Amino acid sequence: MNEQGLRDLIVGVKAGQVSRRAFVQKIVGLGLTAPLATQLLAHAGLAQTSPSTDYKPTKAGGGGTLKTLFWQGATLLNPHFAVGTKDQEGARIFYEPLAAWDPDGNMVPVLAAEIPDIENGGIGADGMSVTWKLKKGVEWHDGRPFTADDVVFNWEYASDPATAATTIGDYQDAKVEKVDPLTVRVRFEKPTPFWTRMFVGSFGMIVPKHLFENYKGAGSRDAPGNLKPVGTGPYRFVEFKPGDIVRGERNPAYHVPNRPYFDAIEMKGGGDAVSAARAVIQTGEYDFAWNMQVEDEILIRLEKAGNAKGRAEIVQSRAIEHIQLNNADPWTEVDGERSSPKTTHPLLGDPAVRQALSLLVDRASVQAHIYGRTAITTENFLNNPERFVSKNTAWEFNVDRANQLLEEAGWKRGPDGVRGKEGKKLKLVYQTSINAPRQKTQAVVKQACQKAGIDVELKSVTASVYFSSDVANPDTARKFYADIQMLTTGTPSVPDPERFMKQFVSWEIASKDNKWQGTNATRWRNEEYDKAFLAAQSELDPVKRAALFIKMNDMVVNDVAVIPVVNRRWVATMSNKLKATLSGWDNDFWNLKDWYRET
Amino acid sequence: MPQAIGGVARPSPAAETWQRFRRHKLAVASTAVLALMLVAVAFGPLLWRVPINDIDFSAHLEGPSWSHPFGTDDLGQDLLARMLYGGRISLAVGLAAMLVAIIVGTAIGAIAGMAHGSVDAALMWLTDLFLSLPPLPLLLLIIYLFRQPLKQLVGPELGTFILIVAVIGGFRWMQVARLVRAQFLSLREKEFVEAARALGMSSLRLVTRHILPNSLGPIIVAGTIDVAAAIIAESTLSFLGLGFPPDIPTWGRILFDAKDYLDIAPHWALFAGGAIFLAVLSINFIGDGLRDALDPRTSS
Amino acid sequence: MGRYLLRRSLIALPSLLGISIVLFAVLALAPGDPFGELASNPNVPPEVAAALRTKFGLDDPIMLRYLRWLSAMLHGDWGFSFVSRMDVDTLILQRLPATLLVIGSSQVLALLIALPVGVYSAVRPYSIFDQIANLLAFIGFSLPTFFTGLLFILLFSIYLDWLPFVYRTDLGVTGWHWYWEQFKQAVMPVAVLGLLQAASWTRYVRSAVLEVIRLDYVTTARAKGLPERMVVIKHVLRNALIPVVTLVALQMPALFGGAIVTEQIFRIPGIGSLLISSILANDTPVIMAVTFVFACLVILFNLTADILYGWLDPRIAYR
Fold first, then answer.
1. Chain B residues near residue C313 by CB distance under 8 angstroms
2. What ipTM was assigned to the predicted interfaces of this complex?
3. Is C295's CB within 8 Å of B128's CB?
């Protein structure tokens, strides 16, 4: 699929031949994201359909308590300091962004009066400004009015490096100014195709100026608002014990009529995912449980039992579980650094070995027996639901062909069955984090490799260490002191591909010089890719941009920089009586106001 | 001193001990059971040649059958083969770690119990220190510092083994030390000790001949509890990525992998749990037997 | 004895200080980074993580950080959690009630089971009672708590539906109802922990009583015609209690961070789960504060045990 193909598709939607939903799914199938698809349509002038809602209750309140279970409890409630989705979800109970992403990738206005687009003049034609019109009559929980001043303040607060906000990346390189009490204009320093990074979705929650203005910059950690949130959301703050519980009560002055349905909400933290699933499906003690990283087999058995009180809810997201191949040599030290970009991997430097490895990952078994409904097989680094025929890349599991490739490249079997060439043996260390499905995947891959004459040693690292950026620790994914490693990028869902395609550009290579903070752990480099990335960063035509991303995806996969395994979907469990819509592009609580229980 | 008195030969103390042990039927039976387990894990894999990591999804979570006497796990791997293979490690780790804890603990407890105030105070400070140390950060630190060098020195398997035994044993000796010291404090004031001292017995003989044998009670109990704790601790280490690689099927690891399938496939956890239980049981009865055998006051 | 007590109390403070230095050094040297999650988040530029590290003084030399911590501690400032951005003492106080209630009750339960069962087993060794008690004890400590906890949940919560298995600190009801709900949610974790503890303690009690009961002065007491119960209580128990006192003293500090697995399984917001989540998130101020209190408790209880030895067996003289 190239640029012309994309344009043809869009024409098809305009002409009514291709439904909007089919278009989105096709784009997602090519390795892009749903929000990007809707952006493509918006750019072509195809107005958004306002999402239908099947909210039945006719008045606010009366629904009792909504009990939710998060096996990682929220540890703080300021969305600008959130580390991980658990903190974002905790904040999302009380705070709201200007707009949110629905499961189809459409932007839905929350605190904004309408979504800016070319037709209503919201988006500047030069791609350098966006104007947001705010909703009238919205109040903070303490009664003060929500105005443009609050929005401008959030930009000042988050973009100030002294505040050390985790949302800083979304608020830089722009200026936000107040036009009138209900209008703000965002001016970007350069043409920015991805203007939705500000004020939208999980990184876009707005905090009140009047409670935080005295705590900007270095004093940010002292704000009482950090622990006692005052927002515009459907529930007001009651209690917070970090890691344990967050409680809220219904906001009677909420700006959307007849909502929320529940009188109170409880977000309990701790424990593990499997028992959380049991608490929702088997005992019904809870209405909702987050992030079910549980073998599908267990979920299915729980759901099928006669007295099952709940079910699993699975939504598309863009999390790709993949195996990274190390381009540098982790077993040689150069200037006190292992996996130095100055080295080349003795075994994986041979394209035949890389091709063979990509043939040895039994994605079908991993998906069918380990992840089940919670993942789909993929060959793209971006993402690819199986049912779409037009693929630029294809996956295959073929042990014989792998054997053949290796044999032809000169890797002959030794007496112990392990292949070798010129004195080097095909022995690989394969690391990943501690997580039952991952360990099982490792076992499956190891077995296939053994049949091809590759000896694999498995290593599992505790998650908090594996994903850390600690300079002293040799087991981090960034240091990559192993031959191959497996991880997922893409959660929390980032709606635009640019952020994670960044991890293949040469200037992001993690090395001692940048304290391994660079995002390119594979140390892979390719000039074509670098050029394409730079072009995509400033390409305003979303169709051209999308085509560039597709090209980049193909490069990564065909050169076997990484081996995509499965596209993991986002799974939650909920009570059979609970009516709630989940979105893979935003937090679970993106639409908390519309949750209700059927009686 | 074995001396013929009136023509009747008295057996040596060693033979007497053995006789007393033999009289304890459960202890003898347990020794047999333990021996059987050790033989099974040592030679079993040579006889039962099903591979431990043969992944076969079509055979997944099957109960016991002729082709899989202990059933299969969720990847279709044969549980009997995995138990035999993993048993080597579990039993070795359990026994070795227990010995480390017992030997270090008894030594420190004995010295502290017998010595002067300042030595006692210093050793108790050390004990308090080890008791205060949070196991997890310390573990991460030790593994991080010593895993690579050990691997270079003695190879990956032995290196990991030494590390695990040292770490598990290193966190359990304090309890033994405190218990032994308490026994010593109390025993050293007793009459028979006074009497022995009056006879001119040296401290060392006093300890080894009189006090230590009478302190065996808590040591033996600690020993049996430590074996179980060590086998389980090894699985906790593995769960944290600090022990053996995740595909090595130690008994504790099998139990841990099986825990979410308790209501779906109980056979998976049953055999691993049962094996640990059997090992603990037999070691304990052996311990009971030993205590009775070594205690001269057991009615003959 | 008085001099010994004085000496030990005087040493307690410097020994605590010494332990705190070692603890701090271990935490500082252990791998792990409190701002680790930021690194895997593509939205956060590395400067933010670096700025945070400087703000919290994480890159300063260890001795400096230790002294800073010590002086803060002495002023009553227990530190500020990196992860939660709130004061450590508030965090700990929030968790104290649940810990004391559940973990405390389990220790009491363990003692209430271990003493009578252990004594009775020893008085009638190898009887049916003894055999069964022993068997149950072996089952008890050869199974890890994650296993027994899960078994209980499967049986009582899921299969029988008698008890809830998620512990809630805010029960939302009052009066008798509150006590009943509290009991229902606490009984399983208390049982899991208590039975595990009771299993090993029973064995120690039995062993200790067996030792003493064969001693000559017990035979003498019996020969003198004293009723069996008196013999046991007055003579046997006092001496057999020495190992029990040792064990209980060793176990008391575990209230403050020991029952990690049980707290995880039942979602009890206790200090154990605070400790483990801080360790995994590398939240050093919290870890340091909790382990420091833990160290204080260790020293305190072991000292108390030493004193009690003197009372239980008056012949023990400390030199």
1. 185-186, 189
2. 0.78
3. yes
